[in-house]
Write a structure and sequence with these properties.
- Keywords: Membrane, Transmembrane, Transmembrane helix.
- The chain crosses the membrane at residues 25-46.
- It is built from two helices and no strands.
- The longest helix is centred in the middle third of the chain and has 43 residues, at 5-47.
- It is rod-shaped and about 75 Å long.
- 80% of the residues lie in helices and 0% in strands.
- The chain has one domain.
Amino acid sequence: MPISPAPAAIFKSIAWAWIANEASFVLTFAFQLVVVFFVGAVAFLLRRSRRRKAKTAILFRALSATLGECPGWLH
């Protein structure tokens, strides 16, 4: 007696959902790395000048406030 195609379809559906979830995680992590890199680069460029130290502090405060409101990413 042949196996019903329903279990295969269910397995494929679960497999694709798992792959999509993992891909979403990888893309989110890559995006986090890009954001951290650019924020670090901007902070480094702003920190090179003494006059801009206050701007760097403002940038970090704004960034931490923004990321604190985000629902769980980059934490």
